[in-house]
Amino acid sequence: MSRNHRRPSHRDQSEFTRNTARYVNKRFNVSNPFERVLVLLVIAVVVGVMVGVVLPKISPEVGELTGEYAASGPAADVLETLRVDDAQSKDGYDRDLFGYRETDDDGDGCDVRDEVLARDLEDVTFTTPGGCQVQSGVLHDLYTGKTIDFVRGPQTSSAVQIEHVVALENAWQSGARDWDTAKRYKFGNDMYNLLAADGEANSEKGSASAAYWLPTNADFRCEYVARQIGVKDKYDLSVTTKEKQAMLSVLRSCPGQEVPAE
């Protein structure tokens, strides 16, 4: 055995033990042997948790071995049917190609923003009696868990934004670049892919997939990921390997999660 790879001797191990004990005594001001053992046990537990939680996030191989990406249930089953594409490109992307807020499918004179506000807010009032333009309401935000009092106005409307659950840029990269204008407009204004959300959370997410952003409200993560899966299944959009792993990591905690119905 080479000198650089020799086994630690009893002397080395004793020295390590003494150094660790000195560090514990100095750092935690512990002199009682029993208390010192308790501190060392706590340190060992913390290190073990860090290894178990952090390493799977850093290394996909470790994640596979630890079952980080093993999930079951209806939403996970649909996820397994989606194409995996790790060669996605945002070249040519332009938000305007999706015609967001440029359609009025029911002919009531209001675009999809007001349709979503009327659906997702409580205690809704309208700018005119019998109209469809939302003046105010209360949003129990699914992304953050916050309650937001919405009032229409130049300085206040942005507190509640309309969120594409599968972002338009993400859709472009995962298949929408090959669609015709009609299909992109349908996607851009599809109520199934839209939620009223806290403005700051929507801005923070941007165009990120589940691999890079999840709601801070952990109670909504399973449903959020399941809806993304539902949207991608509906429009035959792909996922990346990292995106799929992130979704599986969420779904492993909720094996009964269904894909939300339209």
Describe the secondary structure blueprint for this structure.
Elements: H1 10-28, H2 33-58, H3 60-66, H4 74-79, H5 112-120, E1 122-126, E2 134-140, E3 147-151, E4 160-164, H6 168-173, H7 181-188, E5 194-198, H8 199-205, H9 221-234, H10 241-251
Helix pairs in contact: 2-3
Describe this structure in words.
The longest helix is centred in the first third of the chain and has 26 residues, at 33-58. The model is unreliable at 1-10 and 46-51 (pLDDT under 50). Helix 2 (33-58) crosses helix 3. The radius of gyration is 25 Å and the shape is globular. Helices cover 43% and strands 10% of the residues. The strands form two sheets. The chain has a three-stranded antiparallel sheet with strand order 1-2-3. A two-stranded antiparallel ribbon has the order 4-5. The chain has two domains: 9-61, no CATH class; 69-251, no CATH class. The chain has 262 residues and is mainly alpha-helical. The chain crosses the membrane at residues 37-55. InterPro entries: GmrSD_C (IPR011089).
Quick synopsis:
The protein has 262 residues and is mostly helical. It has helices at residues 10-28, 33-58, 60-66, 74-79, 112-120, 168-173, 181-188, 199-205, 221-234, 241-251, and strands at residues 122-126, 134-140, 147-151, 160-164, 194-198. The strands form 2 sheets. Strands 1-2-3 form a 3-stranded antiparallel sheet. Strands 4-5 form a two-stranded antiparallel sheet.
**How many runs of DSSP E, i.e. beta strands?**
5
Q: List unreliable stretches of 5+ residues.
A: 1-10, 46-51
What fraction, in percent, of the residue positions are helical? 40-55%
How many structural domains can be distinguished in the coordinates?
2
Radius of gyration: 25 Å
Number of helix segments?
A: 10
The structural class is mainly alpha
For the sheet with most strands, the description reads: 3 strands, antiparallel
Secondary-structure element pattern, one letter each: HHHHHEEEEHHEHHH
Q: How far apart are the termini?
A: 66 Å
**What oligomeric state do these chains adopt?**
single chain
Q: What is the spatial order of strands in the main beta sheet?
A: 1-2-3
Dominant shape? globular
Strand content: 5-15%
Average pLDDT figure:
85
Transmembrane segments: 37-55
InterPro entries: GmrSD_C
Protein name: GmrSD restriction endonucleases C-terminal domain-containing protein
Organism: Bifidobacterium pullorum subsp. gallinarum
